[in-house]
Amino acid sequence: MDAQGRGRADDIDPADQWVLNPNTGEYELRLGASSAQSQVPGPRRATSHGTGSGPPPGGRRADAPERPSSRQQSRETAAPGGAVPGQRRRRNAPPEAPPPGRRGRRPEKKKSKTKKILAWTGGVLALVLVGAGTAGYLVLQHLEGNVTTTDVGSAAKNGFSKDEAFNILIIGTDKRTGKGNEGYGDKGSVGHADTNILLHVSKDRTNATALSIPRDLIVNVPDCPTKQPDGTTKVIPGTPDTRFNTSLGQDGRDPGCTMRTVKEVTGVAPDHFMMADFNAVKTLSTAVGGVEVCLKHAVHDKESHLSLPAGSSKIEGEQALAFVRTRHSFGNHGDLDRIKVQQQFLSSLMRKMSSGDTLTDPAKLYDLADAATKALTVDQGISKVSTLKDMALELKKVPTKNITFLTTPVLDNPEDGVVHKTVIVNPSAAPQVFDAIRGDVSFTAVKKKQQAQKDAEAARLKGPQSAASDVRVRILNGGAPAGSAQETLSWMQNTEGVTKSENAGNAPRTLDKTTLEYAPDQADQARKLAALMGLPGAALKPGQSVSNSQGLPAMTLTLGADFKGAGVSVTAPAKAPDVVKSTADKVQCAG
């Protein structure tokens, strides 16, 4: 019998079988005395160091997810001797006599920091996939056994860093998976990238940008290595001038192909991906008790079956899915206006989840996590519950007023003729947006948490500079296009007079941003090279020198993914461009 069934059999609320161990600060599965006679089956079974079912001495069960019990915060920290508290009885069950020496009164309820974190982790950062024939808001915590993992090779990072900015590609497919979804999407679809949001979270966690990428955007899908069931790698040839949505599913392409296409289009490399089916938006909107939306005019859409009056309405389940799928009742009846509606829905859901009355019930949170994670597919780098929790807690730091939603600037595709079915990247406006995201520049006014650090970085650029001929540097390629190190070497020697430079090949690891490491006595050289290359102060990393091929001390220049070409400045823009956008804290009406 599993924990859920065991709890019900003993008239105990399954949600209350997770209790806080005051010795470790971690939640543990507590099955009680009778569990010593039986084992808990299944891959997520909690185990102890011995044969019993109690917690390991002084620590948290390594394989138990972090699941809290309901309304027990004050008593959790009051257990005598540091013991793990016992279970709460099931709701409506007959009361038990209080233990000897203890008063039987109910402990005072207290909304603790732990409960607030749980609400955010399972709620506000229930990452969103809204969409076109598809969509869903995905809870990122708990039950990694539910989560499907796809190996996308080098397209994704191996892990998650709490100290860096990060980019998550959120994908919604039009594949008819999930109970009750047979009538949605395209029958027999292989699962295209129907809804796509590139979420960038700033390094200082003051802001985040959610960039929607239209499914009908004409792009060049690059060659894509994909892992096959037998462990081999098959390279799927790229396709020029095709819709973005074909970067997934078509010809066997996996989410890694979509990630590579995003980098090809924007220059921003996604670190990880998350993908879901139709059920996510239905489950999550129902779990929070409905999502408030606003319409400028009444909608009665025959295609999506959405019927709502003008003004505010609360929607959930099938109606919520119909809302995010509707296109024929808004704007020009196309994908771009539907994207705006989806962004409005996402903002409203995030506001609901960040409110004080949402997702503070651990039982509800568990049910939500269980259903939502079954619809979730991620890359191997974030497949562990602990990693998803860390990511959620980092995103939780971003105020909703500084979460910006915008759409890739596009133009109608002139190749379509009279009827515009597809779009192309706007060559005048889009590069500025991409540069701002790549440079970690906020689209909202934020306080600089790390102003002292930024001032220190700027100070590195101030001071005397060496002559170009005195600069000694080794050049490594750490994520720039192939041949960039040699291209930079030729530019330095033939154009700028940096003759004491050399190509050192590939870096041991890839970097998002170009860096220049130097020893204290090489600061003058570093400032000179930074001026020549247009490097920001943040790129200069005080450290150690290395020996060049002549055995002389040299600096190390590592070209990152932000490298744009020899002689082209990689300094981030001082401010984001003025574009049409919205923020998660604002209520807007669709129309």
Task: Tell me what the structure shows.
With 591 residues, this protein is of the alpha+beta class. Helix 12 (484-496) links the parallel strand 22 and strand 23. Helix 5 (279-287) crosses helix 6. The radius of gyration is 27 Å and the shape is elongated.
Alpha-beta content class: alpha+beta
How many separate helices? 13
N→C terminal distance: 52 Å
The chain-level mean pLDDT equals: 74
Shape: elongated
Question: How much strand?
Answer: 15-25%
E-strand count:
28
Biggest sheet features: 8 strands, mixed
List segments where confidence is low: pLDDT < 50 over at least 5 consecutive residues: 1-20, 25-29, 31-142
- Percentage of residues assigned to helices: 10-25%
Which strand order do you get reading across the main beta sheet?
5-18-13-6-7-8-19-28
CA gyration radius, whole angstroms = 27 Å
Notable characteristics:
20% strand; 6-stranded mixed sheet; 8-stranded mixed sheet; disordered N terminus; 13 helices; 591 residues; alpha+beta
Topology of helices and strands:
Elements: H1 3-9, E1 18-21, E2 26-29, H2 73-76, H3 113-124, E3 127-129, E4 136-138, E5 148-150, E6 166-173, E7 193-201, E8 208-212, E9 218-221, E10 224-227, E11 233-236, E12 239-243, H4 255-266, E13 272-276, H5 279-287, E14 291-295, E15 299-300, E16 307-308, E17 311-315, H6 317-325, H7 335-354, H8 362-373, E18 376-379, H9 385-396, E19 403-407, E20 410-412, E21 423-425, H10 430-438, H11 451-459, E22 472-477, H12 484-496, E23 500-506, E24 515-518, H13 523-533, E25 540-542, E26 546-547, E27 553-559, E28 582-583
Parallel strand pairs: 5-18, 6-13, 8-19, 22-23, 22-27, 24-25
Antiparallel strand pairs: 1-2, 3-4, 6-7, 7-8, 9-12, 10-11, 13-18, 14-17, 15-16, 19-28, 20-21, 24-27, 26-27
Helix pairs in contact: 3-7, 3-8, 3-9, 5-6, 5-8
